[in-house]
Amino acid sequence: MIAIIGAGKMGEALLAGMLNTGHDPADVLVTEPRADHAAELRARYAVRVVPAAEAARQASTLIIALKPQDMVALLDDLAPALRPDCLVVSVAAGITTEVLEKHLNPDTAVVRAMPNTPALVGLGMTAVAGGRHARDEHLERAESLLSSVGEVVRVPEKYMDTVTALSGSGPAYFYFIAETMIEAGVLMGMPRATAEKLVTQTITGAAAMLRDSGEHPVVLREAVSSPGGTTAAAVRELERHGVRTAFTDAIEAARDRSRQLSEG
Ligand SMILES: NC(=O)C1=CN([C@@H]2O[C@H](COP(=O)(O)OP(=O)(O)OC[C@H]3O[C@@H](n4cnc5c(N)ncnc54)[C@H](OP(=O)(O)O)[C@@H]3O)[C@@H](O)[C@H]2O)C=CC1
Ligand SMILES: O=C(O)[C@@H]1CCC=N1
Fold first, then answer.
1. Which domains does the chain have, with CATH numbers?
2. Which of 47, 66, 99, 120 most suits a substitution to test ligand 1, by most atoms within 8 Å of the C-beta?
3. Which residues of the sequence carry a binding annotation for NADP(+) (predicted)?
């Protein structure tokens, strides 16, 4: 039995992605304290919504998707009810396996995972790192579960804050670019629906080429930049405004915020 505690944006994306890719709703328990959202989850996914202690008693794999700030209180509550063989998978940004282990029973196998919301459409990217008691079989169980909603990589835990900054928060950066490009089209007088269509398909096509061509992004960008043309003029403006530095600083800020979250 798999249980998901916290069906907010990320927990629900994982739930929906897992069910879309063939998990049986009868094998999934969800914990959601808000009655209206619990009713929505039952209606939308045909899953059982149960209290956290009940989920802990039944689950062999427990996925926790609460805000980092709420994690410690929940772990303290859950620990007495957990099955001894339960694997705990936390997707909370910044919360280290050391903190997870400290608030669970001695010897509990924990895996720290950082997924992203494209899990909802089966195109997620998740990195996982095991705690002190996570054996290969535990990491494989977590990887197998999360690979149902996209790609999974195993990384040393020291990279998890950078993972969070790159792929965890990453979808938001692309939505930010999309939003900015759409507004630019509207500013220039284009109907909003046309601008949305052009930008959405361009991002989708560019992403597919980056994934499928095996080429470095610089090579792909050079192929778009005709000599003396429009793209070179645009990229010069991006460089003049320090967009590269802004992105690097933004990603560093996300990494640093992830580190801070483990400090409570
Ligand atoms: N959003 C993202 O793209 C990603 C998020 N994450 C991580 O996922 C976690 C959740 O983030 P996100 O989904 O964005 O946040 P949300 O606020 O959308 O989700 C948190 C959920 O937890 C529920 N909750 C709070 N307390 C309890 C409890 N005691 N028992 C059960 N459920 C509870 C909340 O319910 P209610 O609303 O009723 O309070 C809410 O549905 C965070 O730790 C974040 O770092 C990781 C990767 C990507
Ligand atoms: O913004 C956040 O803190 C979470 C973690 C990664 C994506 N969303």
1. 2-155 (3.40.50.720), 170-261 (1.10.3730.10)
2. 66
3. 5-10, 65-68
List residues near ligand 1 (CB under 6 A): 5-11, 31-34, 37, 52, 65-68, 70, 74, 91-93, 114-117, 168
The DSSP output letter for 10 is: H
Residues contacting residue 210 through CB under 8 Å, at least 6 positions apart: 217, 220
pTM of structure: 0.96
Number of neighbouring beta carbons within 10 Å of residue 131: 22
Q: Which amino acid is at 196?
A: E
What is d(CA 8, CA 17) in angstroms, rounded to the nearest whole number? Answer: 14
Q: Which ligand is the nearest neighbour of the Cα of 127?
A: 1
**The pairing of beta strand 28-31 with beta strand 48-49:** parallel
Burial group, residue 107, by CB count within 10 angstroms (0-12, 13-18, 19+): exposed
Is the pLDDT reported for residue 264 higher than 80?
A: no
Residue 126 bridge partners (DSSP): 152
